[in-house]
């Protein structure tokens, strides 16, 4: 079940990243984050009330609050890095955040066997290559690299934290709700400050109509991201964290395939090789 939940996480993260990337071409990234997470808060609030999830309130929810604070920081660092550095370097480099939950699993005493260690190595290499890193060209700005590493740490820490925020399904709904409320509060505050400093919350010359038109896509991005967090937490609770973390982080393969299917982007040789290695690593891990 761990492998199944982890691969579902990869699917949801990959599609959410693809959808978010498309939206940020038309709408400021911070607005996309706040709007999509607001929709997630509303849906999760209904689920918490319907399932009685509020009865699971306890000190473990501080892990969800921490995940909610780190999430927007990681996302903004990631988008900033994309703005100043080549996507072909930034995107795969951000996926190395997988080392955070893997390190947590090892710290907690998990000791994968030889096939699993081989799978870890092969899958991580495949994840990085699947993003299509640029091996030639001008050097990447140091600021872009630092921002990307900050984003990678944040993404990995969110996975590790949300896995510790609940111990059952109803508790998971409450933890995800708390995380998203914190996301919206932190992202909303950042958006307010940005607007006060002259930044744009909406595309120039556009009104709220652009958000209404994008509502289905925003809902998909927000809910897919929530679903990914939820399935990762279930994967980590039902099996080795190291296995769950690496399999969940194969999402660059999904993003690349979505770009191929929807935008007709051709996979480069290095991306195809990375996808193949990620699949080989998946088989070794599942063994």
UniProtKB/TrEMBL annotation:
Keyword Membrane attributed: yes
Protein family membership: Belongs to the EamA transporter family.
Protein name (record): DMT family transporter
Coiled coil: none
Lineage: Bacteria, Bacillati, Actinomycetota, Actinomycetes, Kitasatosporales
Keywords from the named record: Membrane, Transmembrane, Transmembrane helix
Domain EamA: 3-130, 144-285
Database matches in InterPro entries: EamA_dom, EmrE-like
Pfam family, one: EamA
Organism field: Streptomyces durmitorensis
TM region positions: 6-23, 30-55, 61-82, 89-108, 114-132, 144-163, 169-193, 205-223, 243-263
């Amino acid at each position: 079940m761990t492998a199944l939940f982890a691969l579902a996480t990869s699917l949801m993260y990959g599609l959410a990243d693809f959808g978010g990337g498309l939206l940020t071409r038309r709408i400021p990234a911070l607005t996309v984050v706040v709007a999509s997470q607001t929709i997630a808060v509303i849906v999760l609030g209904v689920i918490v009330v319907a399932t009685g999830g509020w009865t699971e309130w306890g000190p473990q929810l501080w892990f969800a609050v921490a995940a909610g604070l780190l999430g927007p920081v990681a996302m903004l660092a990631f988008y900033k890095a994309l703005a100043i550095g080549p996507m072909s370097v930034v995107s795969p480099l951000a996926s190395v955040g997988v080392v955070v939950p893997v390190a947590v699993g090892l710290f907690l005493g998990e000791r994968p066997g030889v096939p699993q260690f081989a799978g870890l190595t092969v899958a991580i290499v495949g994840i990085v290559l699947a993003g299509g890193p640029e091996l030639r060209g001008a050097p990447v700005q140091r600021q872009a690299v630092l921002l990307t590493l900050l984003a990678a740490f944040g993404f990995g820490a969110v996975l590790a934290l949300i896995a510790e925020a609940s111990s059952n399904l109803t508790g998971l709904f409450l933890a995800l709700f708390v995380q998203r409320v914190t996301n919206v509060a932190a992202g909303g505050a950042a958006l307010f400050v940005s607007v006060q400093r002259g930044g744009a919350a909406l595309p120039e010359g556009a009104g709220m109509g652009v958000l209404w038109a994008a509502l289905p896509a925003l809902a998909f991005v927000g809910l897919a991201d929530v679903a990914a967090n939820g399935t990762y937490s279930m994967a980590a609770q039902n099996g080795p964290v190291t296995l769950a973390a690496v399999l969940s982080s194969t999402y660059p393969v999904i993003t690349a395939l979505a770009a191929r299917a929807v935008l007709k982007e051709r996979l480069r040789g290095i991306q195809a090789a990375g996808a193949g290695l990620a699949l080989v690593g998946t088989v070794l891990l599942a063994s």
